[in-house]
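User: Some background: our group keeps a shared notebook of sequences we're curious about, and every so often someone picks one and asks for a predicted structure to add to the entry. Today it's my turn. The entry only has the sequence so far, pasted here. Could you supply the structure so I can complete it?
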Amino acid sequence: MTLDSLRDDLEWEEPEAPTRPRWPLFAGLALLLLAVVYVAAAALLGDRVPRGTTVAGVALGGQGADAARDTLAAEVATATGTPLVLTSSAGKVEVAPTDVGLSVDVDATVDELVGFSLVPTDVWRHVAGGGVEPAVVRVDEAKLSAAVEGARGELDAEPAEGSISIAGGAVAVKEPVAGTRTDTAGTLEEVRARWPGATTVAVAAETLPTKVSVDELARVRTEFADIAVSGPVTVSAGGKSFPLTPKEFASAVVLTPDASGAITPRPDPKELAKVVHAAAKKAEVEVEAKDAVVTFSGRTPSVKPHVTGLALDDASLTAEVWKAIGGTQKAAEVRTTVTQPAFTTDIAKKTLPKERISSFTTYFQAGQARVHNIKLASRIINGTYIPPGQKFSMNAILGQRTPEKGYVKAGIIRGGRAAENYGGGISQVSTTIFNAAFFSGMKLDAWTPHYYYISRYPEGREATISWPDLHNIFTNVTDGGVHMQVSTTDTSITVTFWGTKKWDIEATKSPRRNIVQPKKYSDDDPECITQKPVVGFTVDVGRIFRQGGSVVKRETYTTTYRPEDDVTCTHPDAK
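Assistant: Of course. Here's the predicted structure to add to the notebook entry:
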């Protein structure tokens, strides 16, 4: 077979050329079209503020750039002229925006809302509509920071602690108030974010908590306070009982927090004992012991025995009454103890007066009005018994000298001048008693020399007296009780102390010094009383204590007398 015949026998076909897909071309054309539309939309929409857009509460949507600027500028001008009020939980303060460089950059604000942009979010905002947009706020940070710092007195506050009390027998709760401390940097950011849309801006601040929480106060009220005041406590002691009301025991309840702010109710033991003892005495459940009493018939003593007392035991009182205050069972059983007085029958008998330990006499002129007062006061004081360790007070025994008590007006010294008053003259009784006490070794607690020297008394050893502020008080520091005998004649008063002699007393006196001459003048007052001149001077007096011939103690006292002026009364009614 030849080649030609072989060709004839075979069918031979030329292959067709391949066909390309057309969709990429269509896609590209579509994208190009979309891009053209996108760019066209961005260009078309970019010259207006997206619809629905507000800035600082001002509606700018749909406005062109120029119109938006004008609208925003008009509103901002109003805000700039309105005070910015900064508030906190403590208070508020007003700031003038212009004083702190606070303003809105209108151009920058509008520029962010209009203009050609291919950013998808910007284009979408124009298509779908805008919303609330911030203004571009400018502020002088230094000035606004200084304004905020300067306003801390109004904006800051320390926390105010709460408390709970049952004072008066009722529960009272004071709620705690947290404090606040302004954060200056944070406040600047708050102003930037909220002004001018808001002319009142709450400052950024740190809350300062109180030590005691609201929950803790509520817990203490529920668990203790309400229970404590729910009713009186019945205190039983020595077979008797008495009520103790919440009003009475409230002062003994302590409801103060510890360092952590926790409140643990506790008693004030001293105050609780005080209020319970007072209530017990009022109810005659607790009775004070009574001293033995020594009386005299002439010089013969008799002893009235002491009486024991009954007292609540403080340890038992605190434990049991406190338990009842805080519990639902309002009853407390308190132990008692029998008490003895300080001056028992045995001590009284052992310390009865044995001998005369001192005596002193002063003299006066008969027939004067003052003599009546001297004799009256002497009769009242005569027979006074001073147990060992006890005090004598002349004012306490006599009280105020009044005509109702039988006193008459007689001479006294008032402000350095002779005058008259009821009870005048009893300073002689006081001076005589003072000297008897001086020579018996008594502890001299309170006495006052006369304003000027009176010659009937020993220099430096005398004691005037007046109600209620000039006293004659001494303490019996001898080894026995002292019986005072006060007797008078028409011209003298004698005070004798009977007791147990402990010391031999020797008196000492220095020469006069610092002599001051009196002044001389006339007085036309009808109540004037003539005075004779006496010099003023200073003198030291002392006493030496001896026992068995040996000196055991020395004491020295200094007295300064002012001069008694020479007064001539010229009024015809004067004395």
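Suggested note for the entry: The two ends are 194 Å apart (CA to CA). Residues 23-45 form the longest helix (23 residues).
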